[in-house]
Design brief:
This protein is α/β, with parallel strands linked by helices. The protein folds into 2 domains: 16-90 and 167-272, TIM Barrel (Alpha-Beta Barrel), CATH 3.20.20; 91-154, DNA polymerase, domain 1 (Orthogonal Bundle). The protein has helices at residues 16-25, 42-50, 82-88, 90-109, 116-123, 130-139, 146-154, 169-178, 194-202, 217-230, 257-272; strands at 30-33, 55-65, 71-77, 167-168, 182-185, 207-211, 233-236. Strands 1, 2, 3, 4, 5, 6 and 7 form a 7-stranded mixed sheet that branches. Strand 6 (207-211), helix 10 and strand 7 form a beta-alpha-beta unit. It is globular and about 55 Å long.
Length: 273
């Protein structure tokens, strides 16, 4: 099982058809669709997955901010009302496009020429993000790798960087709960301190992503302990964006079926309560 993966609906490179084909090739029994600020690919993936007996978890990855302005990502998993989530996130997606336009303006002002139409072509109708800008710059010959683009121009603190609009933690978790899902702190790494998790739990957090390519053995052990201490549910996934090699290969995190069961039991307990 893999409970964190992206499609072309946001910044992934796999279409719904390619997404399902990759999940089947990886012999997964369940896959979560967790695109950034959109559930646009969920219907198509769900429809295609039925032909292969693949269990699809409707999800989303939200960019949120705490009271100090620090960013964190939360996965909304097992969303029952995706239409409501889609409507609620429309303004966020509009802000993503405005941010991309501002970044493109900054790039052009410093002589790194790129057209917004090229960026939108990379997004192909999905939620626009910096990876789409980076891909457009690669095709324009400004760099040879995506990382170079971030390191030179569009990463935090770089000449063309523009901050993005984020929901508050409270609003993000509330949205997930209203949609019938659970809120899972995504790839926290070293940010998963006891104090930080305690505050998030007070705000309604349901789980933490334990297994992620960015987590080492020490991180996994520490986060497992926090999950147990605070009575949360564990989750995990590859954070796959379509690459066929590297660390983030679909299914590489080997999430236990018991974790999926625990997540569904958490939802059932909330509904029953």
């Amino acid at each position: 099982m893999d409970l964190h993966a992206h499609t072309t609906a946001s910044d992934g490179t796999a279409s719904p058809e390619e997404f399902v084909a990759a999940a089947v090739a990886a012999e997964l029994s369940a896959i979560a669709v967790t695109d950034h600020d959109t559930v646009g690919a969920v219907p198509a993936v769900s429809r295609l997955a039925k032909e292969h007996g693949l269990d699809v978890v409707a999800g989303v990855e939200l960019s949120l901010h705490d009271d100090a302005g620090r960013e964190l990502h939360v996965l909304g998993l097992h969303l029952a009302d995706t239409a409501m989530v889609d409507a609620a996130l429309e303004s966020v997606r509009d802000a993503r496009r405005s941010r991309a336009e501002s970044i493109v303006e900054k790039l052009n002002a410093i002589g790194v020429t790129v057209q917004m139409d090229a960026v939108l072509a990379e997004a192909a109708g999905g939620a626009v993000g910096r990876p789409h800008i980076a891909r457009a710059l690669l095709k324009a010959g400004h760099a040879t790798t995506l990382q170079q683009v971030f390191d030179r121009w569009i990463g935090a603190g770089k000449p063309a960087y523009v901050d993005k609009q984020r929901l508050s933690i409270a609003d993000g978790i509330d949205l997930v709960h209203r949609a019938g899902g659970i809120a899972v702190y995504a790839h926290p790494g070293g940010e998963a301190t006891r104090e930080r998790i305690a505050g998030l739990v007070d705000g309604g957090l349901d789980g933490i992503e334990v297994r992620h390519p960015s987590h080492g053995a020490k991180d996994i052990k520490h986060i497992r302990a926090l999950v147990k201490t605070f009575g949360l549910v564990p989750s995990g996934g590859s954070d796959w964006h379509g690459a066929m090699g590297g660390l983030r290969v679909l299914g590489c995190m080997n999430v236990a079926p018991e974790w999926l069961d625990a997540q569904r039991e958490r939802i059932a307990a909330r509904v029953g309560g």
